[in-house]
Amino acid sequence: MGNLGLPIPEGVASDEGKATLEFTIPAHFSTGISVQLTPRFKTNVDIKWTDTAAWEEFKIEFDSDVDFLEILSYIAPENVSARSITFPRGYESTWSWAVGFEYQWNDRLALRAGYEDRPSAIPEDKADLLAPFGAAFLVGMGFSYQLDKDTVIDAGMGMLQSKVDIPSGSSSNLNSTDPKDIIYTPYSGYDAETNITAFLFEFSYLTVF
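Predicted structure:
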């Protein structure tokens, strides 16, 4: 069976049932300051903290015994039973920062640009594909236009980029060659890489009536 080399019990082609995962949304804190440097030029600086360490592990529980999990429970009894499997994560809480600029072109039009640095909450030895989002940066630009005294249009676009190289044997959640990690390393002994690019668009129309 895959990397484990374990057989599926005879006559069992598949298992069906319900599974549950208790998922904690990490606590988040952010604060910032806006400074009007000149009559037309303003800057904003923000700092943020996310308690990603709350994702110490993900535990999936099933409503009935799963034959394959029962086999795995002999290999890792501390994390696997016939009705559950726990995925240790070992993530870390992180601080990040962002800076933005606004230039008041005229009485109607304001131009905006910004940059955000997002360090990874996943240590190098815990990189995985359940949460492949590593260290990233976000750049963006946009504008605000006052159509009339009651109506404002805001628009913006941004690009987020994250790339992580995971050398062979470096992560206990992905490609470790240590036998004790056998359950959690689908790419044992392989080099791995994650590459994420996201384009963000925003548009809003605000009017008073």
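Summary: The chain has a mean pLDDT of 88.
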